[in-house]
Amino acid sequence: MALSDQQAAAAFAAVARRYCRWADAPPGEPRTEILLARDLLATLQSSCLLLSEAAIGGDHETVAVPQSHWEAVRSRFSILPIDEYWEVYDPFSDEDPVIVSIRDSLADIDRDLRQGLDLFDAGKVGEAAWHWRVLHGVHWGRQLLGAQRAIHAWLSRHE
Predict the structure, then answer these.
(1) Which residues contact 138 (CB under 8 A, 6 or more apart)?
(2) Could you say which of 1.20.1290.10, 3.40.190.290, 1.10.8.280, 1.20.120.1550 is the CATH number of the domain covering 5-157?
(3) Residue 85, beta-bridge partner list
(4) Letter string b/e over residues 21-51, b meaning 16 or more CB atoms within 10 A of that residue's CB
(5) For position 19, what pLDDT does the model report?
(6) What DSSP string runs through the chain?
């Protein structure tokens, strides 16, 4: 059974809230945290794919997440047993790999999700779905996939 646009947005909002609550929570044991990161990132990815491509947005303003909040979230992820890893953002270009931080990626994801949640909670469901979907394509989706790849590689070496 296919979800309606409203149902898909509500389902994604629930997953985004879970992620943001995790980002705000005190850190737990490193292995538990990396397994939870793996599971939440996979759930975000699959839930985002259900958001309607017909969602309309682009003419809305989002509330900026304070830099201090981003830094606190980034710091919270220092419990993870990995941080820096090599990334190639476009596998079809000849660009060199760069070193990126999983802490930065997870904090960026949190920031992009929160901005969409502000829209969703204000009753702007279509705008929220558009925000999440578009930023998934150009920002947080790339961060998510890189973090997933790094987590997968680390876990495959430490299981």
Answers:
(1) none
(2) 1.20.120.1550
(3) 100
(4) ebbeeeeeeeeebbeebbebbebbeebbebb
(5) 98
(6) -PPPHHHHHHHHHHHHHHHHHHHHSPP--HHHHHHHHHHHHHHHHHHHTTS-TT---SS---PPPPHHHHHHHHHHGGGSS--EEEE-S-TTS-PPPEEEEHHHHHHHHHHHHHHHHHHHHTT-HHHHHHHHHHHHHHTHHHHHHHHHHHHHHHHHH--
- pLDDT value, residue 57: 65
Q: Could you say which residues of the chain have pLDDT below 50?
A: 1
Q: Would you list the domain boundaries of the chain?
A: 5-157
pLDDT at 89: 80
Asked whether the whole model's pTM tops 0.85, one would answer yes
According to the model, what pLDDT value does residue 121 have? 96
What confidence score (pLDDT) does residue 69 get?
Answer: 94
109 CB-contact burial (10 Å; exposed 0-12 / middle 13-18 / buried 19+): buried
Extract the tokens encoding 50: 């259900």
The CB density around residue 56, as the number of other CB atoms within 10 Å, is: 11
Quote the pLDDT of residue 159. 79
